[in-house]
Amino acid sequence: MMKILAHRGSSGTHPENTMPAFEEAYRAGADGIELDVQMTKDGALVIVHDAKVDRTSNGTGWVKDFTLDEIKELDFGGWFSEEFSGLRIPTLEEVLDWISGTSLELNIELKNGAVRHAGLEDGVVRLVRQYRMEERVILSSFNHYSLVDVHRNYSDVETAILFMEGLYEPWHYARSIGANGLHCYLPVAVPEFLQGAQQNGMPVRPFTVNKAAHIRRFKDAGCAGIFTDFPERAVKIRDES
Ligand code: G3P
Ligand code: CA
């Protein structure tokens, strides 16, 4: 069965990467959630997509330049709608504490891009183990050096490569760096690609899949999962006969 993975939580209906977005995905029947992790100046692991806080909070500046106390002062809900104003940024630990009491799977994206967070991989794996979530977690990243680091040091943790386009036979490449999944930009997932991945036993999970026609197409093609901003809609479409 194709897994429905809520992209930054139920981010089409709730402010992305916040506890209400994650809780809504659970209520809607999603199989798992995806979130983005970065590190503050004082080494706390926080859930936020952009390298800067500007788009999704009432603050300005780089995530890496805030302490945890400082970034917790910001409102991460008001930008989305008045109803959610006053929401605080979640830490990875807060999310793990909640999710470990559910049956949800968790895809943690290591946001090690323009800003490289030293020690991000170790910190994330330490917390995942502390909450005994190893069996339900996939770590992914556009930064494949991060994934190599995870695989070398923690070979029991599942990893998947994130990529936008242009990788030739990515199933071979992914395997060569110890990864076991292809998290690709939706337009990459054409029939030839999906067939190649399937023949080579490599699970595919495209992002971000919100349209009904795409959801049906990836289900029919046997994708392992999809990332969607609208998990309630995707579950309904996936489960229709
Ligand atoms: O993990 C899938 C997707 O989240 C990757 O892109 O930019 O939404 O983090 P982005
Ligand atoms: Ca992401």
Automatic annotation (TrEMBL):
Superkingdom of the organism of origin: Bacteria
Molecular-function annotations in GO: phosphoric diester hydrolase activity
PROSITE patterns the UniProt entry points to: GP_PDE
GO BP of this protein: lipid metabolic process
Boundaries of every GP-PDE domain copy: 2-238
SUPFAM superfamilies cross-referenced by the UniProt entry: PLC-like phosphodiesterases
PANTHER family (UniProt xref): GLYCEROPHOSPHODIESTER PHOSPHODIESTERASE, CYTOPLASMIC (PTHR46211:SF1), GLYCEROPHOSPHORYL DIESTER PHOSPHODIESTERASE (PTHR46211)
Protein name: GP-PDE domain-containing protein
